[in-house]
Specification:
The structure holds two protein chains of two kinds.
Chain A: H1 3-18, H2 23-43, H3 46-63, H4 73-91, H5 121-127, H6 131-143, H7 146-157, H8 162-169, H9 173-200
Chain B: H1 3-15, H2 20-32, H3 34-52, H4 63-107, H5 113-125, H6 127-139, H7 149-161
The chains are: A mainly alpha, B mainly alpha.
């Protein structure tokens, strides 16, 4: 994270604690887009994300003066957001997500690739911003169970480091790396099936 | 290194954080294994594709949601300090009452055995508190007003040292 953001956050936290007029406006200006985006990525539903965002901001305002400051302010806010969203998901019957195991690469007992590999990388590079392909990637990302999706969203969408993501989720760095890798392997496999089927059809 | 191991090392390989000796070994495997080459290229393309789509999968906050959320949070934030003050006043009133009860129970010798013990050992070490209570006991009249701030904070600490649910005076 940039030093500038760090400074902004420090000043914001200080003014929230003091109850300076305009502090809440500044909090909203800096974070409402990010929090809504993160809540949407996890909850995938606009009204749920809106309610979650309300809860997140109320928690931040209530707890600003007890925030310890041993982690960065933004990572504290993200953590509140992730916890709020996961609690909401637990309260609901969640949609059946695709099993990630089914989409892990398959190897023989000797650890060799069990099936032939097609190289479709050129197609993706060429069409990376193609709308249909974009839709597919988005769909596959949303199909990930929340365990993987949250990690994937924080690191690949929010651009946080593994260390930052680990802190927010209260997991170890190796656990983050492993989930992230599995999420990517899953996406590769899904894309592979999608592109090859498209070719066959 | 076999194909399976290679597949699980790709994250470090792609982000450049891999140990150079392992990288050499991996490159060597890649140069001899066509499926792994295809796998690696498509894995990289997947990561690249999702990274490029970062902007596209951003859920922009709709204007009306922004509006509603802002109104809600601002209104709640304004009410919050008021509510907080109410709670704090309530706590302060309760505490003042308890301190007064403790002082009169101590003066009248009606402390429970646990709190009498606590009070005794505290007063033995604290001239301020023992002086205060000695004076009260000698006159035998309940004190007017709150005890001085220093003594008050000691008494609060004493009450907090009691086990939860335990009353500090005899019924």
């Amino acid at each position: 994270m940039s030093a500038e953001r760090w400074k902004d956050d420090e000043a914001l936290l200080e003014s929230l604690r003091k109850g300076t007029p305009g502090a809440v406006d500044e909090l909203l200006r800096l974070y409402q887009g990010k929090i809504f985006n993160l809540a949407m990525s996890i909850l995938k539903n606009e009204s749920d994300a809106e309610e979650a965002a309300q809860d997140v901001f109320m928690t931040v305002i209530r707890k600003a003066d007890t925030f310890q400051g041993n982690s960065a302010f933004y990572s504290w806010i993200y953590r509140i957001c992730v916890n709020t969203c996961l609690m909401r998901l637990r309260g609901k019957r969640r949609n059946e997500t695709v099993s990630i195991e089914e989409f892990m690469p398959v190897f023989t007992d000797e650890g060799m690739h069990a099936s032939p590999m097609d190289d479709w990388s050129k197609e993706v590079e060429r069409d990376a911003l193609n709308e249909e392909l974009g839709q597919m990637i988005r769909k596959y990302t949303e199909e990930l169970s929340e365990k993987y999706r949250v990690v994937f969203v924080l690191s690949d969408v929010e651009g946080l480091s593994n260390e930052e993501t680990a802190k927010i989720l209260g997991l170890t760095v190796p656990a983050i790396k492993s989930r992230l890798h599995r999420a990517r392997l899953y996406l590769r496999e899904q894309l592979s099936r999608y592109l090859l089927e498209g070719k066959a059809g | 290194m076999n194909c399976k191991e290679l597949a699980y090392m790709l994250a470090d390989y792609c982000n450049g954080s891999m140990d150079p000796r392992l990288r050499e070994e991996l490159d060597d495997h890649l140069s001899r294994c066509e499926p792994c080459m295809a796998f690696t290229k498509t894995f990289r393309a997947t990561c690249e594709g999702t990274r490029k789509l970062r902007e596209a999968i951003e859920y922009a906050i709709p204007a009306e949601v922004r509006e509603r959320l802002g109104t809600f949070v601002r209104a709640a934030a304004l009410k919050y300090p008021e509510k907080m003050r109410e709670y704090r006043d309530q706590i302060e009133r309760d505490r003042r009452e308890k301190v007064a009860d403790l002082v009169s129970a101590a003066t009248a010798g009606k402390l429970s055995s646990a709190s009498a013990l606590l009070m005794e050992s505290h007063c033995a070490a604290c001239p301020e508190c023992s002086g205060y209570f000695d004076a009260l006991r000698s006159t035998g009249t309940p004190p007017a007003g709150d005890p001085p701030a220093g003594i008050r904070s000691h008494l609060i600490a004493l009450m907090q040292a009691l086990p939860p649910g335990e009353e500090f005076f005899l019924a």
